[in-house]
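Quarterly update from the structural biology core.
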Amino acid sequence: MRRKITSIETTLVIVVLTMAAIISLARSFRRPLCFPSASTHNRLLKSRICPLWSSSFYFCLPPPPPRNIRLRHIDRPTPLAAVDPFRASYSSATAPSPMSTVSDDNNPLLKEFEFPPFDVIDASHVLPGMRALLKKLDSDLMELEKNVEPSWPKLVEPFEKMMDRLSVVWGAINHLKSVKDTPELRSAIEEIQPEKVEFDLKLGQSKPIYNAYKAIRESPDWATLSDARKRIVESAIREAVLSGVSLEDSKREEFNKIEQELTKLSRKFEENVLDATKKFEKLITDKKEIEGLPATSLGLAAQTASSKGHENATAENGPWMITLDAPSFMSVMQHAKNRALREEIYRAYVTRASSGELDNTQVIDQILKLRLEKAKLLGYNNYAEVSMATKMATVSKAEELLEKLRSASWNAAVQDMEDLRQFAKSQGASEADDLIHWDTAFWSERLRESKFEINEEELRPYFSLPKVMDGLFSLVKMLFGIDVEPADGLAPVWNADVRFYCIKDSSGKPISYFYFDPYSRPAEKRGGAWMDEVLARSRVLSDDRTSVRLPVAHMVCNQMPPVGEKPSLMTFREVETVFHEFGHALQHMLTKQDEGLVAGIRGIEWDAVELPSQFMENWCYHRDTLMSIAKHYETGESLPEEIYQKLLAAKTFRAGTLSLRQLKFATVDLELHSKYVPGGSESIYDVDRRVSEKTQVIPPLPEDRFLCSFSHIFAGGYAAGYYSYKWAEVLSADAFSAFEDAGLDDDKAVRETGHRFRETILALGGGKDPLEVFVEFRGREPSPEPLLRHNGLLQTA
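Predicted structure, tokenized:
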């Protein structure tokens, strides 16, 4: 019997067909792919978007750490000073600040190291260390410009060497700001950043280097270069243009001032979000007020209270402290029976960083104004066009995709809300006919529990962090033939909870390393989850030039820490997050690309960079994988089979609503960067409300200021790029389908397919067009069929 096709199913059909058309367009009009140019020493970092499963998607979106993606995407803040971008201005070093008293001999930032000395770097090292380093690099740059030749040994190799030290040092400093923030570190970064950005601009606008790259492309030897080297040259030329190298002197000076100010503003935005999140604390002494919170949440709330001076706090008797940090916030929204408490916490969350000295409203206005001015200087109509210049899609194609999905998702989302109202009414809820934002997460969780008999909190004991990591490491051993071994003590760490690991190939030879920082620390650590590089694989930077320098990554999450004698117990969604971020890390760590400028995650188009991360999430629903990690932390009992089947069934729960919520973010992003006119008749909040009319069944509160904490686009790398998650979903679904075709129960076939995935998707880095890489793995171009099948639509399509 054929069942009726729902609107959300129709949506997915339209989406995948649209994606196929965009892929075809990208193939016909293929651009050279962008890699993070060495001129900006970019730290390629990936943040984890709010899980699509969450009924609270709208307000649980975690902010990513700032992302330095190419000079034209500098989202790092620095004050707009009277800076001449063509002068190596180090005169400020002659008047040291109070923190500039560390000598070069004692500065860990200036010493040679195998791994960054995270344990000893502090704010006092930043100014003297960075100034000394910038002075040395400025001298190296002048020497390179003076003697540059259009050849690989005389241009690209010395360029990579020169920039690596700055990339590593600046990356270590900013990493510590993300995971161990202090006022002193903020101040030091703020003071040095104009000088650092000044050097970035000088490098990015170097005409001798720009002309040398063009000469390589125009030389008779061009045809003999590898794909990777061609992409390096093409990207360097394009990046130089987008960095203002072709602008006249007066316009270039204006461009440089804009870059300085944008860097300052993005840092200010993220700091305001962090400070506003930290600022809110609600102490509760009456347990009735937090009725419904699970034991793990009560333990966390008591532990937080204890850390704030209430030393005798216990999970049973309190007091309990609620914060806006994700584990605390989400627990209240999903489980607290106290509607007034949910309302208070929700209102606090959606108005973060929107008032007083932490108000981001003017920061956003200035960011959008300057991004538009920058786009105009570069000859584009708007900033979205600048962003899309290095992506597979175009502004119009992205908008078309979003609108088709939105229009087809609306009715399904309306039905989701009606289902929620009817369920709340059946439970005798007085608010059933007037459900509002602080009700939807609570009643969605109750409906999910009722419909699928799954309670996220009750599943936590089956997902202890040590067991999850053991299972993850066993999976990648089977798929990719690698061993992940603890290497604690080999590298300095920034917190006692941080673990360090070594990855070895089948012969036992180390091929990469990574740090893992799993727990939430709201007083000093940014929210969200991300992967970032510490060191990139590189032949040029190896000690002997006959081998390679091994890549090093770090992976950061914000899950609930251990409480008392209990290990960190994870929700299933936190398990997915760990798998997701490890997918990014694998692409960095398992690369076989020896050209450091396009190794690992460097150089992969934004539209495709989520492929390995989303691919790894699929394995969370693979029965053998899940059963290997889902063991009760006390009894060792495996997750019951019926619970596993219910997890599968619940995978697409409230899909219409969740689709609309993600579309809200993507559409607002594009609207603000393509159509919004700073200083015009519409405010940023007018745009947000206008978009919400078509993307939210329940209109936002009048005081909703979600934009003030939308770090993805104002302090991260997703400006005019949030749409890209759907693009990568087609690729990742099709990639996983290769394993399904081989037979997920056939270990030999899975290993063979995993080897092919490793040798293509994970190994080739940004040295080859990602569409070509996909075809090399899959044997054909991407198909929408796997996405249809994974969503249960194949029989109805």
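The chain has 28 helices and eight strands.
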